[in-house]
């Protein structure tokens, strides 16, 4: 019902599978997926999650694994754009009168928007952060050692060497740690609206009417520069590309290894970015409750993993890892339930907490969000700012944004229905619903 097979034709080396209930709205993205299926050393098949839409090179929502290839277009410009969920011990009814003032305080404390900057890190400090990840950031005073248990890969991916990033990337990254950025990035104060699995929710420390905070941001200009640098280096390596945006290097080549290292630097930067933002949020919430991490998941990344007894480089571009119970890469805290999966909606709709399963259909992957139905330019042309704000106000959602343009670009009508996306991955057993969260207050860049 939701699995559409595109048989291998033309230059495709494997079949492709699109997991959706509507193929008509994603025709351009399907062509991109077919191009991905044409790349050398691809393993098994190319996959598209229900939130698939057109992207650079790979479609967003695309998943593919290769035995010996790595492609920046299969990762994206915002490397490790990810989601972190924080929990409090506050009941909604006790906190609702403080939501607006807390949103204003967070907005004033956390730099947001295009070009937002924070504390400048010198080269020595930034080197330690990008090579050692969230652990080093915590040692610098931005968190608790136990936080690492609740971050994918414990907040550090290797190999990661400063030698593999450009001076321009360093300059862009040195003062953006602890900033939100713009686009679809956000900080939301949310309420746990519904619990679907009490046992799993208890292990995650979630309960109905609880106040939680979601952070969605990534590696900022640092990751963007790394992607830009390596796309240029790979652009003319191969002449038989179905799409120039799918430039790649063989994984075991010198350039392939350098990009892998640089990409991991950006991933560690993103984990650290969310860690520093968590530190700021804890300061604001300290008068109400302690704040703990539920989990932090990465999107837009390529990882070496073992699937079907074969080591492969899994590219997840706008997709989430979703390992099932007792997978060796999951923290002991969550071994029994599987890896937590966080699927954010837009600023006017729900987000979901799910857990991974032992279904390995798409290399243990699931959706990462709602997926766009309107491009940003289309949203600016078609949507009315006053109407968008009025609709959010009617739902009792407080919005603070640096840019009116961002509110239009990221309006609920620009996205697919998140409930529909989550229902598909739940029914296909790619990940299972645990809790539904609804927004109360939103900060956008």
UniProtKB/TrEMBL annotation:
It is an enzyme of class 6 (ligase). The active site is at 368 (gmp-histidine intermediate). Binds 2 manganese ions per subunit. Keywords: GTP-binding, Ligase, Manganese, Metal-binding, Nucleotide-binding, RNA repair. It catalyses: a 3'-end 3'-phospho-ribonucleotide-RNA + a 5'-end dephospho-ribonucleoside-RNA + GTP = a ribonucleotidyl-ribonucleotide-RNA + GMP + diphosphate; a 3'-end 2',3'-cyclophospho-ribonucleotide-RNA + a 5'-end dephospho-ribonucleoside-RNA + GTP + H2O = a ribonucleotidyl-ribonucleotide-RNA + GMP + diphosphate + H(+). GMP binds at residues 184-188, 299-300, 344-347, 351, 368-371, 444. Its cofactor is Mn(2+). Transmembrane segments: none annotated. Monomer. Belongs to the RtcB family. This is tRNA-splicing ligase RtcB.
């Amino acid at each position: 019902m939701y699995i559409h097979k595109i048989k291998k034709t033309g230059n495709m080396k494997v079949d492709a599978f699109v997991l959706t209930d509507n193929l008509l709205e994603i025709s351009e993205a399907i062509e991109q997926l077919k191009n991905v299926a044409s790349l050398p050393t691809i393993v098994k098949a190319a996959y598209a999650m229900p939130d698939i839409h057109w992207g650079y090179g790979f479609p967003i929502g695309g998943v593919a694994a290769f035995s010996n290839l790595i492609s920046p277009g299969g990762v994206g410009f915002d490397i490790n754009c990810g989601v972190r969920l924080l929990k409090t011990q506050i009941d909604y009814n006790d906190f609702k009168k403080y939501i607006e003032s807390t949103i204003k305080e967070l907005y004033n404390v956390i730099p947001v928007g295009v070009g937002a900057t924070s504390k400048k890190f010198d080269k020595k400090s930034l080197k330690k952060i990008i090579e050692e990840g969230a652990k080093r950031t915590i040692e610098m005073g931005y968190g608790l050692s136990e936080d690492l248990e609740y971050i994918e890969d414990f907040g550090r991916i290797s190999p990661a060497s400063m030698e593999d990033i450009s001076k321009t990337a360093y300059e862009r990254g040195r003062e953006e740690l602890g900033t939100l950025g713009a686009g679809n990035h956000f900080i939301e104060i949310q309420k746990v609206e519904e619990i679907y699995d009490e046992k799993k929710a208890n292990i995650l420390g979630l309960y109905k009417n609880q106040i939680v905070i979601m952070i969605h941001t990534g590696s900022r200009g640092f990751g963007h520069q790394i992607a830009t640098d390596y796309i240029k280096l790979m652009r003319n390596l191969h002449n038989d590309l179905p799409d120039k945006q799918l430039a790649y290097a063989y994984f075991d080549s010198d350039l392939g290894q350098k990009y892998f290292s640089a990409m991991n630097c950006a991933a560690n930067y993103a984990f650290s970015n969310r860690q520093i933002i968590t530190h700021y949020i804890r300061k604001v919430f300290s008068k109400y409750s302690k704040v703990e991490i539920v989990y932090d998941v990465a999107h837009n990344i390529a990882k070496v993993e073992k699937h079907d007894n074969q080591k492969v480089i899994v590219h997840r571009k706008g997709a989430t890892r979703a390992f099932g119970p007792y997978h060796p890469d999951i923290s002991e805290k969550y071994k029994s339930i599987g890896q937590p999966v966080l699927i954010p909606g837009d600023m006017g709709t729900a987000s979901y907490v799910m857990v991974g399963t032992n279904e390995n259909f798409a290399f243990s992957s699931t959706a990462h969000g709602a997926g766009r139905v309107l491009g940003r330019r289309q949203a600016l042309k078609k949507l009315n700012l006053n109407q968008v704000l009025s609709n959010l106000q009617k739902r009792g959602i407080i919005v603070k944004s640096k840019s009116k343009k961002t509110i239009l670009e990221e309006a609920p009508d620009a996205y697919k229905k998140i409930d529909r996306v989550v229902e598909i991955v739940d029914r296909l057993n790619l990940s299972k619903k645990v809790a539904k969260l609804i927004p109360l207050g939103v900060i956008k860049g």
